[in-house]
Write a structure and sequence with these properties.
globular, Aminopeptidase, 151 residues, 32% strand, alpha+beta, 4 helices, 7-stranded mixed sheet
């Protein structure tokens, strides 16, 4: 698999972002969805990457700078036909390495609390992330879980 920095011009990437948003709204109350839309992904503080299996889009992931010492993982999504093939872990490892190379002291994330998000929570926990309090502008809700990884 290869990972490429994205410019949001690829229709396959745009379609996967749209799927990510649709599923976020299908699985969480609207006021508990924090997935970035296209305008959020264009924020200069956000960098988006895509993961490719040969010429097939396998997944996406983004890193947002919250401050010079703290990054946030955003838009982690595996293509439905590439689930359970290591795509999420490959992207997660890339984002962690990028956060370290930027000199962040930690990287954090928000994910859902319901059963549909259990595989994501397991992935983050296996990578060493630990549960934490809400960070940045997030507020504590029963529909979100927060994780952080300190370097």
């Amino acid at each position: 698999m290869r990972i490429v920095r994205e410019t949001l011009d690829n229709p396959d990437v745009v379609a996967l972002i749209a799927l990510h948003l649709r599923e976020a709204y299908a699985n969480s109350p609207p006021d508990s969805v924090f997935a970035l839309d296209m305008s959020g992904l264009r924020d200069p503080a956000v960098t988006l990457w895509s993961c490719w299996d040969d010429d097939v889009l396998a997944g996406i992931g983004a890193l947002k700078q919250l401050d010079p010492d703290h990054g946030e993982l955003k838009s982690m999504r595996t293509s439905p036909d590439r689930l359970r093939r290591g795509v999420g872990r490959t992207m997660l490892d890339h984002l962690i390495a990028e956060a370290r190379s930027r000199g962040y002291g930690r990287v954090s994330l928000e994910t859902g609390s319901t059963a549909v998000y259990a595989p994501a929570r397991s992935l983050y926990e296996q990578a060493g992330f630990v549960a934490c309090e809400p960070f940045g502008t997030y507020e504590d809700t029963p529909f979100s879980r927060y994780y952080t990884l300190k370097f």
